[in-house]
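Q: I have 143 residues here and want to know how they pack in 3D. Can you give me a structure?
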Amino acid sequence: MSIIGIDYGEKRIGVAITDELTGSAHPLKVVPAVSGLREINKIITEYGNVEKLVVGMPYNLKGEAAFKAKQVLVWIELLKKEVKIPVVTWDERFSTSEAKDILLKADVSRKKRKKIIDKMAACIILQSFVDAGKEKHAKEGAD
């Protein structure tokens, strides 16, 4: 089973997916926000074995829902009406700046960075979610 990670934005939505064998997250694509719900449904159908969607939630430094979070929550409600799999949220703090740092270190041009930063941020959100699950299972096994 795969998990899809989503970095919602007003103009663009970054999408990432986990590899079924390794469980690691990979950037998938960037879709226009206006067709985002339809595109995500297509991705779910195309990959077929998707168990859940993880949507990045914009929290502030205090861990509270940021102003943009209300917009994301409204979009998530629309998404839940469109898809038949669980939708969960995950802290997305610093995911875009982390993606930017990775792309800068890789010497990706500014023009290309703009095209891929959203799917990289989705990948970071998703990998963080996956890693937290692995950590949880490791701790449970140690008890």
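Q: Anything worth noting?
A: The chain has one domain: 2-142. Confidence is low (pLDDT under 50) at residues 137-143.
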